[in-house]
Amino acid sequence: MSHFRAACVQLTADREDEVSLVQASALIREAHAQGAEYVQTPECTTMMEPDKKRLLAKALPEEKHPSVKAFSALAKELGIWLHIGSLIVGTEEKRAANRAYLFDPTGAIKARYEKIHMFDVDIPDGQTYRESATFRPGEKAGMADLPWGKLGMAICYDLRFPYLFRAQAKAGASILTAPAAFTKFTGAAHWHTLLKARAIENGCFVIAAAQCGVHAEGRETYGHSLIIAPWGEVLADAGSAPGVIVADIDLARVAQARTMVPSIEHDREFSI
C-alpha cells in the first residue's frame, strides 16, 4: 500500500489557544472531507504569542493541554493520521517546548518531536527573534511509521539544516515534513527553494503546512503550504490565505527518483 491522500492546513493562529483551536479544527475537518488520510497543521498551530512572559504563562504541560486532548479526539472521530506541526507546551524548566505531535486514527500519540534548531536571528525587515530564550531545543530527530512509509519530522527553522533531513532519509524516511511559521521576509526569499531542495536531494516527498497572514503585534508569516514530489515538482501550493491543500501521494515515486539519481547512496566521509 503506497498510495494515500495528504493535506496541509494553512491558518493564521491567534495568540489565544482556544481561538486558534476552533479555526484549526474546522480546517482539519475540511481536509478530511476532501479525502485526506494524513493531515498536517503548521508550527504553533494554536498559539502565536510574541510576548515571552505571556507565552510561558499560557504554556500548559502536555497532560493538561486542551489542544492535545482536542486533537486526539478529532483524529479518532475522523479516523485520520493527524500531524500537529507543533504546540507550545509547558515544561518543568524555565523554557517551553515547541513540540510536534502525530496522532493515529485511534487518537493515540504515535510520535512527538521537539524543534532542534532555534531561530535566533535579526531580520532585515526590523524583526528580531530569540527562540532560545523561550524554548528549549530538542535533542532527538523525529521519525514515525505511517501505514504507507516512514515519516521524518522537523519544524520550521530545521529546514535550513539539510543534514537532519539526510539522516532521516538514510534511516528510511520517504516523507519529510517541515511545518512552519516562516516570516514573510524569509519565506519570500527562501521557502520554496529550501523545500524543493530537501525533496530533490533526498528523493523524498516533502509536506510542509504553514502559518499565513498577520498575527499579534504585527508579525507576518508567509503561507504557501507546499506538497512536493521527490523529483521536485510542486503538487500543491496554498498561496497566502488560510485554507486546505491536498495531493495524492504515490510512494513508488521515491524509488523512481532515487533510481534516476541515487545520490543518497553516494555519501562519502571526508576531511577538511
TrEMBL record:
InterPro entries from the UniProt entry: C-N_Hydrolase (IPR003010), C-N_Hydrolase_sf (IPR036526), Nit1/2_C-N_Hydrolase (IPR045254), UPF0012_CS (IPR001110)
Entries under SUPFAM superfamilies matching the protein: Carbon-nitrogen hydrolase
One GO MF term attached to the UniProt entry: hydrolase activity
CN hydrolase domain span: 4-251
Keyword annotations from UniProtKB, A to Z: Hydrolase
Pfam families per record: CN_hydrolase
Family indicated by similarity: Belongs to the carbon-nitrogen hydrolase superfamily. NIT1/NIT2 family.
Protein name in the entry: Carbon-nitrogen hydrolase family protein
Organism of origin: Kiloniella laminariae
